[in-house]
Each structure stands twice: as C-alpha cells, then as structure tokens.
C-alpha cells in the first residue's frame, strides 16, 4: 500500500500550493505524528512513517529525509521537537531525538541526539553552540506566524 502513497506524493508535488497540506495529511494517515503548523518540505521514511514524531511549528527543509529503518538495529523512532528548523538536505538517522528550538544546518547527517536550544551541523552533525533566549524568541515567533527564516524577502518555507 505504501507504493500508492509514493505515487500520490509524486503527483501532489507538482501542485506546490496544495502539496504541503496534502503531504502532511497523507503522512498522518500512515501513522506519523505531525504537530500544528509544521512545514514538511522533505520526506519521511516510507517504510515506517508511524515511527516519526514532529512537534508543533517545525520546518523540515527541501530534500531532507527522516529515516527510521536500519538493517542492523531494526526500525527505531525519530522524535523532532517543537520549533525545530532543519535546513536543505538534512538526513536524520534512526533513533535520533532533536530537542525543542534546535536548528540543524543544511546537509547535516544527524547520527546522535541533539539537545534542546542547540545548533548542529556537519557530517556527522556536531553541536556548534547553544542558542540565546533572544534568538529563540525571534525565530519561534517567525515560525509560529508562518514567516520565512533568514535574511531577505525570498526565504524558503513560505506558504504561497
């Protein structure tokens, strides 16, 4: 039955305006726990989407993948906290928990847990620093209001 959803995701992807809500709806139907205001531009594991939990107002960047299956350790859950921002092409491996208000840099491969209020990047991802309260309040307000994060007016992740 998963192959049917893959076809639907491909078809829905051509209609960008409606694709975000439809994609989230279909992943929820497959058992994924996705919070309010999530912008899911990436993909969840097609084999075990029911093992993925994403908190409120988080952003999963384009080309990102949350992988819950592993041939060695078996399927393991992935938990993404609230107000988490993942850049372009992030890969989250099985069994990882990303804490609330964290930022994951573009192209990162997250192999271990990321504590709350952290900025992580790299392959494998390392914690670069902790976020200060002013930065957290500013970016969480942008995420909650559906605004793009970053400089300039043409940021990605904006509902059009």
Describe this protein's structure:
This protein is of the alpha/beta class. The protein has one domain (2-144): Hexapeptide repeat proteins (UDP N-Acetylglucosamine Acyltransferase, domain 1, 3 Solenoid), CATH 2.160.10. 24% of the residues lie in helices and 22% in strands. The protein has helices spanning 2-13, 16-29, 133-144, and strands spanning 33-34, 39-40, 43-44, 52-54, 59-60, 65-66, 78-80, 85-86, 91-92, 97-98, 103-104, 109-110, 118-121, 126-130. The strands form three sheets. A six-stranded mixed β-sheet has the order 2-5-8-11-13-14. A four-stranded parallel β-sheet has the order 1-4-7-10, covered by helices on one side. It has a four-stranded parallel β-sheet with strand order 3-6-9-12, with no helix packed on it. Strand 13 (118-121) and strand 14 (126-130) form a beta hairpin. The chain is globular. Mean pLDDT is 83; it is low at 152-160.
Write the layout of secondary structure elements.
Blueprint (H helix, E strand, L loop, with lengths): L1 H12 L2 H14 L3 E2 L4 E2 L2 E2 L7 E3 L4 E2 L4 E2 L11 E3 L4 E2 L4 E2 L4 E2 L4 E2 L4 E2 L7 E4 L4 E5 L2 H12 L16
Parallel strand pairs: 1-4, 2-5, 3-6, 4-7, 5-8, 6-9, 7-10, 8-11, 9-12, 11-13
Antiparallel strand pairs: 13-14
Helix pairs in contact: 1-2
Highlighted features:
single chain; 14 strands; 24% helix; 160 residues; UDP N-Acetylglucosamine Acyltransferase, domain 1; disordered C terminus; alpha/beta
Q: What is the CATH homologous superfamily assignment?
A: Hexapeptide repeat proteins
Q: Topology as H/E string?
A: HHEEEEEEEEEEEEEEH
Distance between the termini: 31 Å
What is the overall shape? Answer: globular
Output the CATH topology: UDP N-Acetylglucosamine Acyltransferase, domain 1
> How big a fraction of the residues is strand?
15-25%
The overall average pLDDT, rounded, is 83
- Give the domain tally: 1
> Can you give the helix content as a percent range?
10-25%
Q: Provide the CATH architecture.
A: 3 Solenoid
